[in-house]
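Complex record, two chains
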Amino acid sequence: GQSLEQPSEVTAVEGAIVQINCTYQTSGFYGLSWYQQHDGGAPTFLSYNALDGLEETGRFSSFLSRSDSYGYLLLQELQMKDSASYFCAVQQAGTALIFGKGTTLSVSS
Amino acid sequence: DVKVTQSSRYLVKRTGEKVFLECVQDMDHENMFWYRQDPGLGLRLIYFSYDVKMKEKGDIPEGYSVSREKKERFSLILESASTNQTSMYLCASSGTGELFFGEGSRLTVL
């Protein structure tokens, strides 16, 4: 089987930096993805890491350590519009993306 | 603009009814997926398909079936709806990378 663990809630203020961690247990691991979902909206793709290291896309970065079965999403210069749920998801061989339970990020002014 | 369209945004059905949730994608993607989303449980995979007429069970297939007769269309079927199937259902498609999701179908079973 597989499992993913991520915090259920994170709060921060505008302009701050926040890190959302994700640990996973799985077999046949291909990569770790991150998705964002605003209230009432569809999940949208943020990033994908197949190799160890940091991937940067604007204010968002994602990190993966395959040896530690661990990754994180780093959000910088937080804005109110970043308030959303963030899901990590693992890609395994021969199956579909398996998602974590999600982290609700609340950004206040 | 890429699009995954789910036929119904909101449905209310009675226990025991047969329910069809339709999903169509216009990106010529091979892969299509059905997830259900419940508060505190995240997205759970019901079924997926890597090709026409092909289907694979996900983590929670019980009480559901699927149909993929054409590449662009993936249907989720609840043969006999039950109250514990009240949920948000999300369809997604992918080529070789990211998933593209539809807006979801919120099903209430009374």
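Note: Chain A is about 0% helix and 60% strand.
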